Structures are given as structure tokens and as C-alpha cells.
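Quick one, C-alpha cells below:
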């Protein structure tokens, strides 16, 4: 493998992966990204030009995707519409990108016999009860709740069908909630950090008891590279770092980092269909491929992430007012 395409490489997790590849491999990377509201050139700026180039385009553009598939050895597919709240307000772009976009990549991978790794989410499994002793595994039945997670589930099933019916050399990974640098400020952790920088009280949906299983984006990247290099074709691997926390706990930790009282936050209108709890069992990835997470101190990771947002205010500041106005209109 010498040349790979990273779709969505100018977004949050994709750009972290591109940085990881530049540091850890000799691969040359073509980022294919439409630069929607969620993508930014800055996230991959300053990387060596002989290693990384950006093609601005749509993964649903069959001609462009065919050309790139014909000239690269592998595709790692991150591009997606990724925010649950947006999918409740307007689902259509989620179908176009997550379903048709993935289908377009699969057809190109099939034609050119290109290795494909598909990035997905634990949300395809629906949610767990708070007291369920089980966590999600590779054999948990699909049961998505939102327009976002149902389109991700649909894309996973397309990949599985293209492997079985057409012999496409693909793998899938389903990861838990990521945090770290370059995450859009519409998402929970960066929304609260950038609010706290501005002195705004954090906004917690409902009673704040919902649980998310946090992993640092850098650990997600090392897991994806491990699967790309060593994963068995046709297999699915779950990626997680045993990071379960309630939303209330996360907000309390952030408030402490800002020297504020732990109860200095507001409860706001809950998300429709809000999943209660996600939790990943990543035993298969750890035992079969020998992967393990390195950034397991959530408190340290959160503190570094707060510092990152303090240091990159020029990146998020122009987006902040519009994001907050959108939430305010929904009582959130
Ligand atoms: P993001 O919204 O930050 O980035 C998505 C990127 O895809 C952006 O750069 C955007 O411009 C690009 N894009 C969107 N539509 C496109 C199109 N039609 N053609 C080309 N590019 C397009 O998302 P993220 O949080 O970095 O998520 C990346 C992937 O990881 C997604 O597939 C998501 O489902 C998955 N995932 C995310 C998380 C998480 O916690 N954020 C967890 C598990 C899995
Ligand atoms: O202001 C907020 N207050 C709040 O309580 C926001 C924006 C969110 N929340 C809650 C909702 C969730 O329980 O925080 C939790 C995390 O919310 P998001 O950051 O929107 O993430 P989530 O819906 O869990 O989905 C994320 O993880 C799985 C990513 O956005 C998905 O792309 C990924 O598949």
C-alpha cells in the first residue's frame, strides 16, 4: 500500500487520522472532502505537500470517485453527515451522503478491486438500559434510533452485501463517542468548552443521565490503522476504550476545569428519541489484532482538549454565534 484516499479527511476524526498517518506511516494521502459546514482546510493545513493533498468533491460524484479509486491502493471512508440533532431537523443530506455516497464508493472499490475500510458508529446498535450488564459486541443486532444512525446502519449493510455478493475487500469498524482536537462546536464536549470560555452555563439535554463511552480521537486513529493493515477482509471490529460517563459527569468535570461550581449548568429540552446509553466491548480488536488505547485518562484528555480550544479560538469563533442561535431556537 502506497497511496490511499481518506474521505472526510477535513472533518474531525478524519483529519486526526490524516495527521496520524503522516506521523506513523510513509503513505501518501489524498483527502476527498466536500468541505461542508463540518469540514475545514485548516484541520489539515501545514502537512507536507508531498504526503497530503486535498481534492474538494462529493463522495456521491461517481466520476470523481472512480478516477480516485483507479489511482489509489485503498480508501478509508470517514465522510458522513454526522450530527444526530441535524438529522432530526433535516434528514435528506444524511441519505445522500451516508447511503448514496457509500454506495458510490463501493461501486468504485468493486470496479478497481481497491481495499476499503468503512468507518461507522456504535449507534447502529441502538441503546442499552443503564443497568444492562452487557455491552455492544460485533454480534449485537442492529437497532438504530435516529435518522443519522439509521443511515449509518444502512451504509454498514451495503458494505457487508458488497463483500459477500461482489467480493469487495472491505472491513468495517464501529467506534464509540470521540473527543479531541478539531471537533465541530455543535457536538457536546466542544459546545460546552467554547461556551465556558465565553462564560455561558453548559446546556445538558434532559436529566443528564444519558451515558456515552468516550474515546480520544487519537486512539480511534491507531485502531483504524491497525485494522487497515491487519484486519481480516469482511470482518467488523468494534473500537472502544472503556470510557463510560454520564453527560452530567462530563459537564461537572468541565466546570471544575474552569474553576466553576459543579452544579453551574442548565437542563434544556431533551433530544427526540435520545439514546440512553452506549457501551462498547472491544475484546475482538484487542485479542485478534493486539490493539489497545493509549489515551485512557479521560480527565487528562479533557484538560488537553480544553487547552486546544483555548489555543484555536480563531478556528471556532466564527461558527459560535450561529450554532448557539440554532440551538436556542429549539430550546436547547
Ligand atoms: P464530521 O462531521 O466532523 O466530518 C465529516 C467530514 O465529511 C467533513 O469534513 C465533511 O466536509 C465531509 N463530508 C460530508 N459530506 C460529504 C460528501 N458528500 N462528500 C465528501 N465529503 C463529505 O464527522 P466526524 O465526527 O469526524 O465523523 C467522521 C466519521 O466517523 C463519520 O462516518 C461518523 O459516522 C463516524 N463516527 C463518528 C463518531 C464521533 O464521535 N464523532 C463516533 C463513531 C463514528
Ligand atoms: O448541548 C448538548 N447537550 C447535551 O446534553 C449536546 C450538543 C449534546 N448533549 C448530549 C446528547 C448526547 O447524549 O450529549 C451527548 C453527546 O451528544 P453529541 O456530541 O451530539 O454526540 P452523540 O449524539 O452521542 O453522537 C456522537 O457519537 C457517535 C457523534 O456525533 C456521532 O457522529 C457518532 O456516531
Amino acid at each position: 500500500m502506497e497511496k490511499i484516499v481518506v474521505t472526510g479527511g477535513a472533518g474531525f476524526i478524519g483529519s486526526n487520522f490524516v495527521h496520524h498517518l503522516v506521523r506513523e506511516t510513509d503513505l501518501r494521502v489524498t483527502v476527498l472532502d466536500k468541505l461542508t459546514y463540518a469540514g475545514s482546510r485548516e484541520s489539515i493545513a501545514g502537512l507536507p505537500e508531498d504526503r497530503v493533498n486535498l481534492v474538494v468533491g462529493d463522495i456521491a460524484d461517481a466520476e470523481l470517485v472512480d478516477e480516485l479509486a483507479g489511482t489509489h491502493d485503498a480508501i478509508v471512508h470517514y465522510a458522513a453527515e454526522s450530527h444526530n440533532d441535524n438529522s432530526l431537523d433535516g434528514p435528506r443530506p444524511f441519505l445522500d451522503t451516508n447511503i448514496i455516497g457509500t454506495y458510490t464508493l463501493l461501486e468504485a472499490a468493486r470496479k478497481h478491486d481497491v481495499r476499503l475500510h468503512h468507518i461507522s458508529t456504535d449507534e447502529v446498535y441502538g441503546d442499552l438500559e443503564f443497568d444492562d450488564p452487557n455491552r455492544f459486541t460485533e454480534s449485537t443486532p442492529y437497532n438504530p434510533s435516529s435518522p443519522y444512525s439509521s443511515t449509518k446502519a444502512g451504509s454498514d449493510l451495503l458494505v457487508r452485501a458488497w463483500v459477500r455478493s461482489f467480493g469487495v475487500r472491505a472491513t468495517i469498524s464501529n467506534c464509540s463517542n470521540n473527543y479531541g482536537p478539531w471537533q465541530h462546536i455543535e457536538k457536546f464536549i466542544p459546545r460546552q468548552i467554547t461556551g465556558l470560555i465565553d462564560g455561558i452555563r453548559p446546556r445538558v439535554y434532559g436529566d443528564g443521565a444519558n451515558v456515552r463511552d468516550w474515546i480520544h480521537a487519537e486512539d480511534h486513529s491507531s485502531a483504524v490503522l491497525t485494522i487497515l493493515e491487519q484486519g481480516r477482509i469482511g470482518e467488523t471490529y468494534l473500537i472502544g476504550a472503556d470510557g463510560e460517563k454520564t453527560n452530567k459527569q462530563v459537564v461537572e468535570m468541565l466546570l471544575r476545569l474552569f474553576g466553576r461550581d459543579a452544579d453551574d449548568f442548565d437542563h434544556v429540552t431533551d433530544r427526540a428519541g435520545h439514546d440512553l446509553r452506549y457501551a462498547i466491548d472491544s475484546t475482538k480488536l484487542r485479542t485478534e489484532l493486539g490493539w489497545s488505547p493509549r489515551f485512557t485518562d479521560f480527565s487528562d484528555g479533557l484538560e488537553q482538549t480544553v487547552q486546544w480550544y483555548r489555543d484555536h479560538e480563531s478556528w471556532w469563533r466564527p461558527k459560535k454565534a450561529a450554532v448557539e442561535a440554532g440551538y436556542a431556537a429549539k430550546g436547547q
